[in-house]
């Protein structure tokens, strides 16, 4: 593991902590897109299904569990938490996610590393979906016109995670012969 991946993982954990603090601690889901949260839950549940048969390291295993658990917890509180449900505005969170999910599913089947492996297809789908999962959140923020501090920090931490992972992939491409 390199420093970019580690910092990317820490930034991603920070994004979860910020969002959970706002939703659970602040008892409010105002300004947060449930559609984005649900797509991230789909991303992590599909990408990390290999938890059932693939053990790379304790760090990797625990992060996968954390990402799945945190994303499902966020969705749970936004859907069923009384105060969160009352502060969530479904009318404003109206991005048509079917236009994101369906093309990502098609791409996952058509463009992946091993065309005969269902796991590779699902993994590729999760990669494509993660690339667009933030769009409903950005759409919601643009619609509302103003952003709470915790929400902007959450979005920034997600962006930092993606940027650091890009640096991780570039670093690995330059330093690992078979990458």
Automatic annotation (TrEMBL):
Subcellular compartments: Cytoplasmic vesicle, COPI-coated vesicle membrane; Endoplasmic reticulum membrane; Golgi apparatus membrane
Signal peptide range: 1-25
Membrane topology recorded in Swiss-Prot or TrEMBL: Multi-pass membrane protein
Principal location listed in the UniProt entry: membrane
InterPro entries named among the record's database cross-references: ER_ret_rcpt
GO biological process, one term: vesicle-mediated transport
Pfam families for this protein: ER_lumen_recept (PF00810)
Chain ranges passing through the membrane: 61-81, 93-111, 123-141, 153-171
Gene Ontology CC terms: COPI-coated vesicle membrane; endoplasmic reticulum membrane; Golgi membrane
Keyword line: Cytoplasmic vesicle, Endoplasmic reticulum, ER-Golgi transport, Membrane, Protein transport, Receptor, Signal, Transmembrane, Transmembrane helix, Transport
Single Gene Ontology MF annotation: ER retention sequence binding
Protein family: Belongs to the ERD2 family.
Stated name of the protein: ER lumen protein-retaining receptor
